[in-house]
Amino acid sequence: MTPAHTAPEHVRDAAPVSAREWTVGRPRVGDGAQLWRLARESRTLDVNSSYSYLLWCRDFAGTSAVARAADGRPVGFVTGYLRPDAPGTLLVWQVAVDAAHRGQGIAGALLDHLSERVARTGPLDAVETTIAPGNLASERLFSAYARRHGARVRRTVLFPSAAFPAPGHEAEVLHRIAPLAF
User: Fold this and answer.
1) Which of 6, 45, 47, 97 is the most buried (most CB within 10 A)?
2) Cα(151)–Cα(124) distance, rounded to whole angstroms?
3) How much is the CA Rg of the chain, to the nearest whole Å?
4) 147 Cβ partners below 8 Å, 6+ apart?
5) Is-above-0.85 flag for pTM?
6) Can you list the pairs that 69-75 forms with residues at least 24 positions away whose Cβ atoms lie under 8 Å?
């Protein structure tokens, strides 16, 4: 982990944002198993090992966010990191919301909360994510985010399908949302 991945103390301890029956805040290591489950049950995300979600909650909590139900159980998450070669760019790795909680604006609230929290640590000029062709829900989510923040979305193929070792993996299209001003 490079220093760019360590959030300052005031960001690590930021108070959660409340909305309806759920809150948005930082992930905890104990959330890792639930994040893995949410990713698996999404049926659209590439599911990483359960160990990687535990590490993500520990090492990248400053650049990730979790939505919690009233009982404290994670019902959505966004994972991300600041790009080491472009520290003003937040790369959003994964976004997932439990099926029973979709349609409540949780994914958008997660993205807004996370980018605002990260912007308090230093300049945040852009958000990037990759989206497989045909993933209309993610397309809508990130297009709406760009509109809310008065930014443009530029799309380019980051990894063609031939770059992946397993056959059948679709290309990953980079969506760069910029310029951002917080």
Assistant:
1) 97
2) 12
3) 15
4) none
5) yes
6) 69/21, 69/22, 69/101, 70/21, 70/22, 73/34, 74/27, 74/31, 74/34, 74/35, 74/38, 75/22, 75/38, 75/100, 75/101, 75/106
For 18-33, how does the pLDDT look when each residue is reduced to its tens digit (9 = 90+)? 446 899 999 999 999 9
Half-sphere exposure of 65 (CA within 13 A, CB side): 28
**With contact defined as beta carbons under 8 Å apart, do 101 and 69 qualify?**
yes
Written as six digits, the tokens of 127 are 């958000």
Residue with tokens 């958000």: 127
Whole-angstrom distance, CA of residue 83 vs CA of residue 89: 6
Beta strands 126-131 and 86-97: pairing type?
Answer: parallel
Judged on CB neighbours under 10 Å (0-12, 13-18, 19+), 118 is buried
Task: Please classify residue 177 by burial: count the beta carbons closer than 10 Å to its beta carbon, then call 0-12 exposed, 13-18 middle and 19+ buried.
Answer: buried
What are the phi and psi torsion angles at 173 (to 5°)?
-95, 125
d(CA 107, CA 42): 13
